[in-house]
């Protein structure tokens, strides 16, 4: 049997309390050892259930501050004879770390400080083993080590600061908010977790319930308009508030919410407003404001005019809570200049608790002064509707518009038509009296209405203008004749009988008489083929007068139909109905309306015509082929052999007229410039007379050609009016009639090697290419 010895006196008292009076034994170590096992009395063995009698719980104070290990209790087995053969082994929660057991004596110690708030009880198991064989001498025994609480935790609130609100003017004792603190100590043991609430700051406005932490109002008539925010500090203390207990605090921010306890009031009970007479209807002319110390919807106000007013109205600006005075009817300085009325203001929402004895409304007087402005002219009517007959001659009277200056000065007004509304310039207006006349004849069939704008302008102040629409209705005059309503495709069968209906016609008229249209249809009474029957409903039937129509005799008939109306003056027109003669079946259905083609008895047959056509086509093809072959023939080259003496001839695209061409270049012109034709144009470019021809002074007959050319070259190079293009002159054989004879070297007696062409390099850049061609071929240079 394993025995447990605790270091608490309470343990012994509890152990003794569970024993019956007959089993009372003297307290001695020996008896304690027999307390949980068997005991001899009067030669009898007292049997006990060791599990029922065994005390299996130790108590240990938390937060032990000793330096050595704290003694917890002692385990002892009846099998232990104190001979060192018994070994005690401890297992379970914290065994070997938090709790150690002496293997020989069974003493249990705690190795460090324990906190009940972390863990309040530990469950362990004790074993008794034979030290030599490690055999279990007794079964495994379970016991608990319970940590006794001490007041080592202060109360804590959930928040460091709370926010709450309460309506202003609340009664004393009105609940505001409940703040609750918690204590981690054991609430079932002692007063360590018993809290008491108190108020440290916030008196005398608020109080707190000491048991549950409910904050209540403590002062009547707290007015938000005087003070809105309060800071209250609440303390929670354990140990039932006794001295030495731990405490915690929190702050509660309390705001007084608004109630409608203040009526609106005008700071000034008289307002003066100035308005110009040109203010538009609905326009604002001024604002007034009443003061209400309340906020939110409690400060919302409504303005109204006492008894109403014909000219003015007042509305509330929901954003600024101001009364906006607006115009209901146009102001007229000339009619009335001063107005006065009373305005009432009141709260929109009322609180029944505060309306007794207070008037939640106020009054003010508003005086309005109208100022004069230069107003634009005013027409007597707006708009004008005028009627005029069509086909009215130009210059005819249409109507009159009238406008006046509403100001007291009554300045003169002139009239004009906005031409953007009368692009065709059909109307004109007298600028003085406003008489509208026509400039052109009107046609109702083109346009039934004309909408123009007439502008009235003050003569002394052209910026003051007014527009008025004038609607001119063009009345109908019977000036159009009726005509066919559509284009008819009418035919008559060859086998038709007399009196047969072939077409029903109708008419239209662009005029619009007041009594409606009434058309009369008629044809010539002498028409032998057709007749017409008026159906008296603006339609008519075309009937055949005879039968036996033939396409060979007449394939088409033109039937003139006269259509007349009944309006004044009567208008009539003649429309032609084309009637084709067609072949029909027995039911009268059209089969063919083409004229019959009679075959020729004489002439060529179709086969002969086709053969002739084929022959013509073949002949045309041969001609085209022959022309193409001639174009493909190659022309003979100008120079047949490389050894030809004319291998130095330069060919240009612009060919001369041949050796007999004596007009290409005349050397006599160079020597006699007097004979130069003043109007002769250059042939190498498009002739354009950009600059007038300038005649130069003549030269002497014995002047060298080279000097003449150099002089002309220098003259053109320095002339700023000379054209900026190069001229290409082709020098070929000049013919026998030339004064200089031939310029070609083909017939020259001297050879090419005998000539010195160095002088060509002095002729300027225009002859650079020519100099390179001849100087580069000189024999001495090639060497």
Automatic annotation (TrEMBL):
Asked if the Swiss-Prot or TrEMBL record annotates the protein with the keyword Secreted, the reply is no
For whether the record's keyword set contains Cell inner membrane, the answer is: no
Gene3D superfamilies (UniProt xref) = Cadherins, TCF3-CBD (Catenin binding domain)
SUPFAM superfamilies, alphabetically?
Answer: Cadherin-like
User: How does this protein sit in the membrane?
Assistant: Single-pass type I membrane protein
**Molecular function per GO:** beta-catenin binding; cadherin binding; calcium ion binding
Chief place where the protein resides: membrane
Q: Where is the signal peptide?
A: 1-24
Any idea where the Cadherin domain is? 77-157, 158-266, 267-379, 380-484, 484-597
What's a single GO CC term here? adherens junction
GO aspect biological process, one term:
cell-cell junction assembly
Please state where this protein is localized.
Cell membrane
Q: Where are the transmembrane segments?
A: 608-629
Q: What does this protein do?
A: Cadherins are calcium-dependent cell adhesion proteins. They preferentially interact with themselves in a homophilic manner in connecting cells; cadherins may thus contribute to the sorting of heterogeneous cell types.
Instruction: Please give the name of this protein.
Output: Cadherin-10
């Amino acid at each position: 049997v394993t025995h447990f010895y605790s270091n608490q006196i309470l343990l012994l008292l509890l152990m003794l309390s569970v024993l019956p009076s007959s089993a009372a034994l003297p307290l001695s170590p020996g008896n304690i050892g027999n307390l949980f096992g068997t005991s001899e009395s009067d030669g009898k063995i007292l049997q006990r259930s060791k599990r029922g009698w065994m005390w299996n719980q130790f108590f240990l104070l938390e937060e032990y501050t000793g330096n050595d290990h704290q003694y917890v209790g002692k385990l002892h087995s009846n099998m232990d004879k104190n001979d060192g053969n018994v070994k005690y082994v401890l297992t379970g929660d914290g065994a070997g770390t938090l709790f150690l057991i002496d293997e020989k004596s069974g003493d249990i110690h705690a190795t460090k400080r324990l906190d009940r708030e972390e863990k309040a009880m530990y469950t362990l198991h004790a074993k008794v083993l034979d030290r030599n064989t490690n055999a279990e001498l007794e079964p495994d025994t379970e016991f608990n080590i319970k940590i006794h609480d001490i007041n080592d935790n202060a109360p804590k609130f959930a928040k460091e600061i709370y926010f709450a609100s309460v309506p202003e003017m609340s009664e004393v004792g009105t609940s505001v908010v409940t703040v609750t603190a918690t204590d981690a100590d054991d609430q079932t043991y002692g007063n360590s977790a018993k809290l008491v609430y108190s108020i440290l700051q916030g008196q005398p406005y608020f109080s707190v319930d000491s048991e549950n932490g409910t904050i209540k109002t403590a002062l009547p008539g707290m007015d938000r308009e005087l003070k809105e925010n309060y800071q209250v500090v609440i303390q929670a203390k354990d140990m039932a508030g006794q001295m030495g207990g731990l405490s915690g605090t929190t702050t509660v921010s309390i705001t007084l919410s608004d109630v409608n306890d203040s009526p609106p009031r005008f700071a000034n009970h008289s307002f003066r407003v100035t308005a110009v007479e040109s203010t538009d209807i609905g326009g604002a002319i001024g604002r007034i404001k009443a003061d209400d110390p309340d906020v939110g919807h409690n400060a919302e106000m409504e303005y109204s005019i006492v008894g109403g007013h014909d000219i003015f109205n007042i509305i509330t600006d929901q954003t600024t809570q101001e009364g906006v005075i607006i115009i209901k009817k146009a102001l007229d300085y000339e009619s009335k200049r001063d107005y006065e009325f009373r305005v009432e203001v009141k709260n929109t929402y009322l609180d029944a608790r505060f309306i007794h004895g207070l008037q939640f409304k106020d009054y003010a007087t508003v005086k309005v002064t109208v100022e004069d402005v230069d107003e634009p002219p005013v027409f007597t009517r707006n708009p004008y509707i005028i009627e005029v007959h069509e086909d009215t001659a130009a210059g005819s009277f249409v109507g009159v518009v009238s406008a006046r200056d509403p100001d007291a000065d009554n300045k003169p007004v002139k009239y004009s038509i906005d031409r953007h509304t009368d692009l065709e310039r059909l109307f004109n207006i007298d600028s003085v009296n406003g008489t509208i006349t026509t400039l052109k004849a009107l046609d109702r069939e083109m346009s039934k209405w004309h909408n123009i704008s007439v502008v009235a302008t003050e003569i002394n102040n052209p910026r003051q203008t007014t527009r008025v629409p004038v609607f001119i209705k063009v009345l109908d005059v019977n000036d159009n004749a009726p005509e066919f309503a559509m284009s008819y495709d009418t035919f008559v069968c060859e086998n038709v009988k007399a009196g047969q209906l072939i077409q029903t016609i109708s008419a239209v008229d662009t005029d619009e008489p007041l009594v409606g249209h009434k058309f009369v249809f008629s044809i010539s009474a002498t028409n032998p083929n057709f007749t017409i029957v008026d159906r008296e409903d603006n339609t008519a039937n075309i009937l055949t007068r005879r039968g036996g129509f033939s396409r060979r005799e007449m394939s088409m008939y033109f039937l003139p139909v006269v259509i007349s109306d009944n309006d004044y003056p009567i208008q009539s027109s003649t429309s032609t109905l084309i009637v084709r003669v067609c072949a029909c079946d027995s039911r009268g259905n059209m089969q063919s309306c083409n004229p019959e083609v009679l075959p020729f008895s004489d002439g060529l047959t179709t086969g002969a015509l086709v053969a002739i056509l084929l022959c013509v086509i073949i002949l045309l093809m041969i001609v085209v082929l022959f022309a193409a072959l001639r174009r493909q023939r190659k022309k003979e080259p100008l120079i047949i052999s490389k050894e030809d003496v004319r291998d130095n001839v330069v060919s240009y695209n612009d060919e001369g007229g041949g050796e007999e061409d004596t007009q290409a270049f005349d050397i006599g012109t160079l020597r006699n410039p007097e004979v130069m034709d003043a109007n002769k144009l250059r042939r190498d470019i498009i002739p354009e007379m950009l600059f007038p021809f300038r005649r130069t002074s003549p030269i002497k007959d014995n002047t060298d050609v080279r000097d003449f050319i150099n002089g002309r070259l220098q003259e053109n190079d320095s002339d700023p009016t000379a054209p900026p293009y190069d001229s290409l002159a082709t020098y070929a054989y000049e013919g026998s009639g030339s004064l200089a004879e031939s310029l070609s070297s083909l017939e020259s007696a001297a050879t090419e090697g005998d000539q010195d062409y160095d002088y060509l390099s002095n002729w300027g850049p225009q002859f650079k290419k020519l100099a390179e061609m001849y100087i580069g071929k000189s024999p001495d240079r090639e060497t």
